[in-house]
Structure formats: C-alpha cells, structure tokens
Amino acid sequence: MKMTWLEVLLIAAVGTIVAGASGYFLIHAQAARNVVESGKTTPARLVITGSSTMAPLVKAMGKRFQTMHPELEIDVQTGGSARGLADVREGRATIGMYGRAMTDAERDVFGVPIARDGVCLVVHQSNPVKELTRTQIADIYTGKLRNWREVGGPDMTIVVIARTEGRSQHELFMNYFKLDEKLVRPHSTVGDNKECVKALLEHADAIAYLSIGEGERNAKGGVPIKLLPMAGVAATTQNVRLGRFPISRPLTLIIRERPEGLVKAFVDFALSPQATDLIWEQNLVPYFD
Predict the structure, then answer these.
(1) Contact 73, 43 (CB under 8 A)
(2) Angstrom distance (rounded) from CA 280 to CA 119
(3) For residue 223, which of 237, 202, 209, 253 has the smallest C-alpha distance?
(4) Exposed, middle or buried: residue 233 (CB in 10 Å: 0-12, 13-18, 19+)?
(5) Which H or E run includes 113?
(6) Are 210 and 196 in contact (CB under 8 A)?
C-alpha cells in the first residue's frame, strides 16, 4: 500500500520527538521520503564495515537509531579500518568505520569523525613492570630487548604481540614509535581487540597494544590486564579527553560521497546529543566534547 505524504511526515515527526534535537524534523522527513520514493517494499539496509574498536559503539548507535527507523536494517561487520575503506570505495558497504584521521590520499571518500580514542601498551596484570620508555618499547618490538629482566621485570622471555597490517592501531603504533615494518619481530600477530586480550591472557609474559577504551572496559570488568602509561601519562579515557595522552586518534565514519537521506540521518544522529551517552559507555570520548 502506497503511503501518502502526510503519513510520511507523521513518521518523520515521531522521529523528531524521540530525538529532541534541533533540525531533526527535516532530516527524518527527507530520510522517510527517500524510502518511499525508492518504491521499496522491503526494509532499507545500511551495511557498515571496518574498525573493530568502533564496532560496539556503532552497533549500539544502530540499535537506538532503528527505534526511530523501524524500516531500516543495520548490518555492522568488523575486519579492520582498511576493510572499511576498501568496502566503501568498492561499494560493498554503505558506511566504513575508520579508526584514524583521513589522509590526502583518501580524499576520494567523505569522512566524519564521531569520537576519539587512544592506543596503549598492555601487559598481564601479574607483570610487575609499571612503565616502559619509548626507546624500550621500540627495542622490544625490534627484538633488541628479549627478556623482561632487562626492563626491571622477571626473568621471562618477552612474548611480543603485534596487530595485523590494515588495522589502524597498528599504523598508529608504528608511526608513533617510528618503526620499520621489516624490522619488527613479533612472536605473533592478532586481528581485533578481542583476539589481543585473549593472547595476553594466554601468555602472562606477553606485551601487546590495543584501544584504551577496550582496555579500560576489560580491566574494569575484571580481566587481568594492565594498561601501561606513556611518557608519564596514564592510559585513561579521561587523559584522551583532555588531549594529554600522546597516542590518540579520531574514530571516523566514511562514506563514498557526501551523505544524504538515511545515511545522512544516521551520521547526524551519531554526532548528536542522542548518541553521546553511548560513546561514553564504550569508554570513548565524543569528538566534539
């Protein structure tokens, strides 16, 4: 049954009331109009792929957004920031999750940062080492330092865990420590944050790096890991918020072209006060906080 424009605008108005944000009426009206004009009888669908750090946040945003748009399906998949960029460029995804700032080489897509996060070094909670210098970390990852006793720890071989290429955390880590990919000597590489935490639990003598938000969430949940400070600054969401933590990054939604319709409505929602609490719940920082 074809909807009248009055019905379309009424649906949009309901979305406006729920959102409670200035300007949301026009966004929701346009989104609903696009669905009607498309002639679709099945729900509209947004496919969102990319950063594993962003995935829990985007899933939570999607769930809330769907309460305002019951005609919409949102499919969130991980695979790393490189996948998100490639999928958007090649039309396999509507939106990409990109865990770093955009570069000049990526101006062919449209990026919208929605939150901020930091990347930190993590060890098992039982490891007595409290902090490592920038030089020591670089030496550990290039194999110059191989035993924890060399940095004030126990007499145990350091199990070095790296992240797979294409992960934004890997790129940020490598750039910050000015490491050459060919010189890094990890014992193993892992993909997403969950695999990283699992590897740390399996090897009490390991070191790895992951999202501060993910690390904080696990540590507060009783997982026996320890986040190491960097340059004397504790690895906390609060320090990312204050701009103190040296290894930080924007978390960005990328689109093939300037967003419109339901895509624009979702991006605007992600930037709106209606999503702020979801960002904090994930131990991340709203980008415009």
Answers:
(1) yes
(2) 17
(3) 202
(4) middle
(5) strand 110-124
(6) yes
Residue 111 in tokens: 């990026």
- 237 vs 13, higher pLDDT: 237
Rg over alpha carbons for the chain, rounded to the nearest Å, is 21
Q: Quick one: which H or E segment has residue 210?
A: strand 206-211
Distance CA 235, CA 168 (A): 18
Nearest Cα residue to 65 out of 286, 279, 227, 267: 267
pLDDT tens digit sequence for 215-246: 999 999 999 999 999 999 999 999 999 999 99
195 Cβ contact list (under 8 Å, min separation 6)? none
Tokens standing for 212? 């501060």
Q: Identify the band that residue 16 occupies on the pLDDT scale cut at 50, 70 and 90.
A: very low
Q: Which tens digit of pLDDT belongs to each residue from 74-112?
A: 999 999 899 999 999 999 999 999 998 888 999 899 999
Q: How confident is the model at residue 258, as a pLDDT? A: 87
Measured at the CA of 101, the angle between CA 283 and CA 225, to 5 degrees, comes to 35
Alpha-carbon span 233 to 5, nearest angstrom: 56
Tokens representing residue 96 in the block: 């990409």
Amino acid (one-letter) located at 274: Q
pLDDT band at 4 (very low <50, low <70, confident <90, very high): very low
